[in-house]
Amino acid sequence: MKFIGVDYGQKRTGIAVSDPDGRLAFPRRTIIMGTREAFFTEFLALLEEEEAQAIVVGLPLHTDGTPNLTTRQVENFVARLKRRTPLPVFWMEEVLTSFEAESDLREAGKRGRAVRALIDQQAAVRILETFLNQPEQQRRMA
Question: Quick one: how far is CA 100 from the chain centroid?
Answer without folding.
Answer: 14
